[in-house]
Amino acid sequence: MEKMTVNKANKKENKRESKNVTDEIVSRLNKLEAENDVKVLFAIESGSRAWGFESEDSDYDVRFIYLRPRDWYLDISVEAKRDVIDLPIEKSSGWELDMVGWDLRKALKLLAKSNPSILEWLSSPVTYRDNPCFVRDIHELAQSYFSPVSAFHHYLNMAKKNYRGYLRGEAVRLKKYFYVLRPLLCVRWIMKYETQPPMEFENLLNDLLPDGVLRNEIDALIVRKRSGLEVDNGKRISALNDYIELEINQLEGVCLSSRSSEKLKDKLNQLFLDQLAK
Q: Rounded to whole angstroms, how far apart are CA atoms 15 and 41?
């Protein structure tokens, strides 16, 4: 009974802390709007807290899309203007906040190239600022511009880079397993569905690795990461290394055929103009 009471108290405390952090993030979004003369159209959580394997001291990685006043864009030097707002990382009450935003024009140009970062932002399960009409319209365009081939190579290269950089020795940075396993599962999702993979790691696992010894190893690592501070160095997990090496070797031999996608440049322009007019 005492243990149950403590667990309930911890959950309430976590919810209270989460609400406090969210309120602080919203407050800082309001502040940056005033200081930079911009309108934030969309703000989400990126990184481990959106992927679902955060630990107690994981950063809050806020990403947002913003719009400047119309006259800012009516300039022959607009291409030379800075189209990113990148705030210094701030520390508050034991947590860190990293906030980066892209101008709408930049975001739409990257969307036209099926940029994986903007596509992940649009699929985040954690939202801090949401303009419903804008989100609806940009989601529709994202589906038209998604390129399975481009996404396939992006996630595979990410998995290979992280594996070779962090998991080849006997002692490894355990949390880096997630930064290899997630992109590998994203690749498998793309091969299976030819759609943007879900951001949540658990959704990928439930679809592609629903059970078995490997799933048990991953679940145990998730519990370990969520239960305390950031998972640091530890002994390599042989079952995971064997799986990763096999997957990388197999996926490097895969050649996806490109599919035709409807390019809607006029609709990208219209979305931009519609937001400027509001």
A: 26
79-138 pLDDT tens trace = 999 999 999 888 876 789 999 999 999 999 999 999 999 999 999 999 999 999 999 999
Question: Measured at the alpha carbon of residue 65, what is the angle toward residues 60 and 69, in degrees to the nearest 5?
Answer: 135
What tokens were used for 6?
A: 């403590």
What pLDDT digit, counting tens, does each position of 198-245 carry?
Answer: 999 999 999 999 999 999 999 999 998 888 656 678 899 999 999 999
Relative to beta strand 39-46, strand 90-92 is unpaired
Q: Which amino acid is at 265?
A: K
Exposure string over 188-208, b if 16+ CB within 10 A, otherwise e: bbbeeeeebbbbbbeebbeeb
Please state the pTM of the whole predicted model: 0.89
| 253 residue type, one letter | G
**How far, rounded to the nearest angstrom, does the alpha carbon of residue 65 sit from its chain's CA centroid?**
14
